[in-house]
Inverse folding.
């Protein structure tokens, strides 16, 4: 075989590995989140794989701190962090999920500070903390708002003026999603993981007044973020809107329950309801009434 053909063969092997990596990121997303999977499916075709890559990366980091209880989580997360930045520099990782992510980071020029902030929030989950307002804001910035900004980098595809215009709305949407997650998961976070993200709230005596205060913050962020969703490019608007209405439905369900109730069960939206929301989103998008 000529050297030229050998090089071509090696290049094709890298393409195969990159496709394997992309498949792993997609499988990670569909395995862990039906709601985000539905949302991604309704993005433009060219956007789906980059968003799978981002979600797969953040999901894997989240699992390190939330699920791997019989292992040295601090070591695993530090190794994950080192591998991530090394892969971005080299343009490859033997971890398929990280390999898929680094490709998106390099292609869409995602700011490395967004990744650092995200990983810092994951490090915060390794420690028992009494959350002040500042720590609460820091955690939400890193765990949710910057993830929205990573996705926005893909949606705006190098258009820096559009990215900057939509940035505040993407951050509000990420924050609203995270706070809904906090309320949905409050039982497991408090009882299984000994976590309480809400500042100045005693979950052992969580009351309806405290719950309503949190809900007012979320309501304001949902309202602000919808303004930005309407300004998104058509290729991303429908998928993001679908995620929005799913979380809004979940939020409304939580709002209808007492603080005592959500401290005793995890609130869910059944899959058949998610499918109904999906078709409603499609119709609204086609009629341009979101």
């Amino acid at each position: 075989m000529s050297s030229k053909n050998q090089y071509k063969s090696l290049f094709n092997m890298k393409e195969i590995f990159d496709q394997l990596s992309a498949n792993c990121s997609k499988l990670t997303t569909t395995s862990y989140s039906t709601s985000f999977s539905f949302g991604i499916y309704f993005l433009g075709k060219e956007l789906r794989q980059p968003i799978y890559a981002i979600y797969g990366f953040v999901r894997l980091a989240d699992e390190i701190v939330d699920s791997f209880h019989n292992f040295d989580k601090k070591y695993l997360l530090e190794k994950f962090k080192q591998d991530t930045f090394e892969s971005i520099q080299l343009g490859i990782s033997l971890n398929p999920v990280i390999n898929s992510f680094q490709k998106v980071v390099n292609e869409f020029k995602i700011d490395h500070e967004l990744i650092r902030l995200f990983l810092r929030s994951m490090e915060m989950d390794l420690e028992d903390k009494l959350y002040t307002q500042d720590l609460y804001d820091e955690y939400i910035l890193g765990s949710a708002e910057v993830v929205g900004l990573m996705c926005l980098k893909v949606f705006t595809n190098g258009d820096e003026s559009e990215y900057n215009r939509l940035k505040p709305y993407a951050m509000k949407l990420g924050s609203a999603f995270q706070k809904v997650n906090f309320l949905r998961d409050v039982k497991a976070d408090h009882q299984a993981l000994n976590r309480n993200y809400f500042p100045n709230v005693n979950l052992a005596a969580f009351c309806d007044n405290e719950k309503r205060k949190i809900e007012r913050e979320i309501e304001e962020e949902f309202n602000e973020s919808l303004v930005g969703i309407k300004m998104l490019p058509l290729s991303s608007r429908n998928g993001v809107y679908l995620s929005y209405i799913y979380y809004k439905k979940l939020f409304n369900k939580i709002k209808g329950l007492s603080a005592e109730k959500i401290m005793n069960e995890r609130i869910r939206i059944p899959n058949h309801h998610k499918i109904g929301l999906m078709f409603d989103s499609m119709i609204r998008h086609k009629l341009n009434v979101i």
User: Anything to note?
Assistant: The chain has a mean pLDDT of 90.
